[in-house]
Amino acid sequence: MRGRIIGRDVYGGAIFVAIGLVILVQGRSFGIGTLAQVGSGLFPVVLGVVLIGLGALIALGGIVSSEIESESVPPMQWKGFAAIVSGVVAFIAIGGLFGLAPAAFSCVFISALGDHTATVKSAAILATVMTLFALCFFSYFLNVQFPVFQLPTSWGSP
Q1: CA-CA distance, 127 to 115, in Å (whole number)?
Q2: What separation in angstroms does the CA of 72 have from each of 13, 59, 68?
Q3: What is the CB-side half-sphere exposure of residue 77 using CA atoms within 13 A?
Q4: DSSP state of 33
Q5: Of 36-45, 101-110, 114-123, 149-158, which range is least confident?
Q6: Calpha distance 90→117 (Å, rounded)
Q7: 115-149 burial, b for 16+ CB within 10 Å, e for fewer?
Q8: pTM to 2 decimal places
Q9: What counts of helices (H) and strands (E) characterise the chain?
């Protein structure tokens, strides 16, 4: 009798469930509030429940799936990983100095270059479109208090 191989979908679903449980427990400590007076813990609690549900569906799909053959895991994509991490770091650094528009553009542009099929032109077009979307959505619709453009207050003055 052959043992059953647990696929990566089961492991991935279990990770989603675990992360969802942690978020759910932590979110409840902030207070959910009511629908009229939403508390700061409502969004994390809802996010935790959604993650638990998605994780359970993914894990169940991995268990039920008949494709339990040995799955070859592709090698790690180090270029893409480095590009995405660099894009997030650039967003943090540039956002604090120059504002949302330059930060969003640099984040998407750098992250897009992690794709092995991307060109500088396609990354620039994607970054421009996503920056326009971010400006419309976050600045105008959600009214997030993050300056669109700004100059640093001091350029190394003592």
Answers
A1: 14
A2: 18, 18, 12
A3: 13
A4: B
A5: 149-158
A6: 22
A7: eeebeeeebeebbeebbeebbeebbeeeeeebeee
A8: 0.57
A9: 5, 0
